[in-house]
Amino acid sequence: MGKTEEHFAIGIDLGGSHVAVAAVDQQGKIVEHESLDITDHALDSVVEVIVKITKRVLASVKEPVAGIGIGSPGNIDASTGSIRYSPNFQWHDVPLGERLRERLKLPIFIANDARCATLGEYTYGIGRDTSDFVLLTLGTGIGGGIISGGQLHLGAGMGAGEVGHHQIRPSDGFVCGCGKIGCFEAQAAGTGLIRHAKALEPSFPKSLLLQGKPDQLGSKAIRRAAETGDGHALAAWKNYTRDLALGIANVVAFLNPQIIALGGGVSSAGAFLLDTLIPQVCALTTMAPAGSTRLEIATLGNDAGMIGAATMAFQGGLVTQKANA
Ligand SMILES: [Zn+2]
């Protein structure tokens, strides 16, 4: 049971271009959901959008709510809800939590979106029967979160879990958004598959896969082409999964969690992804007992962030005990 007896909490996914708000019950089910676009990144405008849509969702839930949890990219002081740095909004030290508390008169908890998604999958999704769990979300970047011994690991500066920025190919890798070469994220995020395909173009002069327009082709199209046996796509998929396996094996070496769950667009490849990855991860895992870390596909999909943010509100912050699942 969570800290409160209220049946609902509000979970908010605050992205760069939209805000999605859900009322979530104590079983982790979304009972109401609305979203709005964000067009102006000024703090006042973003606060207005959040307040407007949250009030609408609150009005549709008749019973009192435990509080409001918000997940957003960047470095966030989860103890106060202050945004230290937001890459989407280019905010530095913005007291978002304080502003929303004044307006919404409810407890407000804010944390990094990937940490929220991890909490969601751990509490209600694929990680619910574990105590040591890692989520890797393979999208435009690699978001991550670590549950160790039943606790969401935040680190000294609340920057723990940035698994995407450990370097796996510092000498011959792609340039990462963070400025380093060959970060796990640059090599193995969903967009990494496009980079691998582009890098292999000279070896496949007759390939029609990219047609000179790699930026317009999604990673899903490359993966589907690989599934149908396209030579160029298969070679890209091979290099991509090689790098993904390398990073995952490093996570196993550091944490040996019961489950590493893969979310984000690439994870929709399901068995095609796992069947390629698992033997490679096993081959690179030298010290952890064989089979002690399972690789799985995350189950909450795009809802993980909202559900996890609501879980944070049920728990009264990023605390250790699970909500009543
Ligand atoms: Zn990086």
Summarize the structure.
This protein is an alpha/beta fold. It contains nine helices and 13 strands. Helix 1 packs across helix 2 (96-104), helix 3 (113-124) crosses helix 9 (304-314) and helix 7 crosses helix 8.
Describe the structure.
- With 325 residues, the chain is α/β, with parallel strands linked by helices.
- The protein has two domains: 8-120 and 303-314, ATPase, nucleotide binding domain (Nucleotidyltransferase, domain 5), CATH 3.30.420; 129-299, Nucleotidyltransferase, domain 5 (2-Layer Sandwich), CATH 3.30.420.40.
- It has helices at residues 43-60, 96-104, 113-124, 184-188, 190-199, 219-227, 231-255, 271-284, 304-314, and strands at 8-14, 18-25, 30-37, 65-72, 75-77, 82-86, 91-94, 108-112, 133-138, 142-148, 151-152, 259-263, 294-297.
- The strands form three sheets. Strands 3-2-1-4-8 form a five-stranded mixed beta sheet. A five-stranded mixed beta sheet has the order 11-10-9-12-13, sandwiched between helices. Strands 5-6-7 form a three-stranded antiparallel beta sheet.
